[in-house]
Amino acid sequence: MPKHIVITGASRGIGYAIADILAQGDHKLTLIASKLTSFHDKHPSIGYFAADFSSFDSIDIVSDQIISQLEHVDVLINNIGMYTGKTLADTEKEDIQHQMNVNFCGPAYFTHRMLPLLRKGTHPQIINISSIAAKTALPGVSAYAASKAAVTGFSNSLRAELNPEGIRVSVLHLSGVNTWNDHNTQSLLAPDDIAKTIQFMVNADSRYLIDDMTIRAV
Questions:
Q1: I want to staple 107 with a disulfide (CB 3.0 to 4.6 A). Which of 63, 78, 86, 196 is the partner?
Q2: Which of 119, 139, 115, 132 is closest to 171 using CA atoms?
Q3: What is the CATH number of the domain that holds 114?
Q4: What is the rounded CA–CA span in Å between residue 20 and residue 199?
Q5: Which residues are catalytic?
């Protein structure tokens, strides 16, 4: 059954791969991206919106645009995020605030704005992208880990809030992802593999909930 799906952070990497694989079906996609990419040339009929997720004002603008155009949302995929690998000693206050805004505060507020549309959806579902850094002690990522731990805690609490309404909330904890070409790809997840997992979750029977999943490269 075709679904109305909203995906954040669709400019590149994981978000791009998720959008690309879901666009191959009958689903209707709305993408939030910092900039349009070659994806727009491949799928010109898909809805695109630009937003700065470090700004509540920007999120309000894009939310108002989406609400004015969509009658409902069946799936919200909160993929937007940023990574800065620094020790706390090397992390400035602006870095801490920006990572919290982009990785947690922005997605949490956007979810709040999308709730009225999700409540009108069919077997609605929220999928939040977190990191193994939220659950595993890793050096040099203290601010990033804190922001992703916030995503995990938010997801777990939101699941308890929305489950009585029939809205499923899932959180994926990912290890390193090959979104840049200058890394050792053998130890990193491929965006396409994550996208296939998301595709399975979106198309899975609504009787089932994948509440918490960890995906690691081996």
A1: 78
A2: 132
A3: 3.40.50.720
A4: 10
A5: 144
Residue 186, pLDDT above cutoff 70: no
The total number of structural domains that make up the chain: 1
How large a percentage of the chain has pLDDT more than 90?
A: 65
Q: Is the pLDDT of residue 23 over 80?
A: yes
C-alpha 155/C-alpha 131 separation (Å) is: 13
pLDDT at 182 over 90: no
* DSSP states along 96-116: HHHHHIIIIIHHHHHHHHHHH
| Three-class DSSP category at 190 | coil
Q: Please indicate, yes or no, whether the overall pTM of this predicted structure exceeds 0.90.
A: yes
Structure tokens at 208: 């089932």
For the chain, count helices (H), then strands (E): 7, 7
Token pair belonging to 135: 């659950």
**Full residue range of the structural domain in which residue 95 is found:** 4-215
Q: How many whole angstroms separate alpha carbon 104 and alpha carbon 140?
A: 19
In this model, does residue 181 exceed pLDDT 60?
no
